[in-house]
Design a protein that fits this description.
This protein is of the alpha+beta class. The chain is built from five helices and eleven strands. The radius of gyration is 21 Å and the shape is globular. The relative contact order is 0.14.
């Protein structure tokens, strides 16, 4: 696989910033929880969970763990390492095992989404009345109000996605947009808790060219994510799910007696 000069530069800069030399890397894992095993006098640490977990497995039997959010371009690093022949340990190719997958939409109502919509309208109206007033300083609260309304509409568009599956593709739906991923274009999908308790779970995605996408899927019930992962495996996608159905977020205790919000 060929990588661009910009991707190579980004990957080499990240490796340099972490003081990792390419020849020291035995393999790597990505989009997988990391469990800190105890050794010698070092006790077992907590699992690292959530999106963007990148682990370098070094030849001296040490692991280097990073959180790589989308703005740090994890796609560039994955593509660069794969192009250098470094094994991707937690990617397992699957063959399609079913001829037909019935269309199903995974969607639930969200109180958080309703609340964010109310905040968007409130600040939009507040900004309009501030700028239409007679006082000369009205533009100051107007700018703040319009800025907050833009923030909340951005949250509505990016943090409250839901999913649908049919025989040919996985589709991501959110406010104002729909993104369709044919199964043949997907390599790996992972579901996990988000590190923010407000946005309780996420979906990570790698396409066939190792480009990474992150979606907050708060409008999908966490109790359906294992089912979605199994259905994706049936159509040849390496899909994994790390969620506990009885928890709302990672540090939560089992809440088997509570229903979804």
């Amino acid at each position: 696989m060929e990588v661009s000069a910009k991707e190579r530069q980004r990957a080499e800069h990240l490796l340099q910033s972490q003081r990792i030399q390419l020849h020291r890397i035995k393999s790597f894992s990505f989009m997988k929880r990391y469990h800190q095993a105890s050794h010698k006098d070092v006790p077992t640490g907590k699992d690292k969970y959530g999106p963007g977990i990148f682990v370098f497995h070094l030849k001296d039997k040490q692991d280097k763990v990073l959180y790589l959010p989308p703005f740090k371009h994890p796609s560039s690093l994955v593509r660069f390492l794969v192009s250098q022949g470094i094994p991707f340990t937690n990617y397992t190719p699957h063959e399609r095992s079913t001829d037909f997958l019935p269309a199903t939409t995974y969607q639930r109502p969200s109180l958080y989404m309703f609340w964010f919509f109310i905040l968007f309208l409130m600040f939009l109206i507040l900004g309009y009345y501030s700028i239409s007033g007679d006082v000369w300083w009205g533009f100051i609260p107007a700018i703040l109000s319009f800025g907050l309304s833009l923030f909340f509409i951005c949250m509505l568009m990016t943090r409250f996605c839901y999913l649908s599956l049919d025989n040919e593709a996985l589709t991501v739906h959110s406010v104002g947009r729909t993104i369709r991923y044919p199964y043949a274009e997907l390599r790996k999908v992972n579901f996990d808790f988000a590190r923010e308790q407000t946005f309780t779970h996420i979906m990570e995605l790698l396409d066939k060219d190792y480009h990474y996408r992150l979606f907050y899927i708060g409008r999908v019930s966490r109790k359906k994510l294992n089912e979605i992962a199994e259905r994706l495996q049936q159509v040849g996608v390496d899909a994994t799910c790390n969620l506990n159905d009885n928890k709302r977020f990672y540090q939560d205790r089992d809440i088997d007696w509570l229903s979804d919000d």
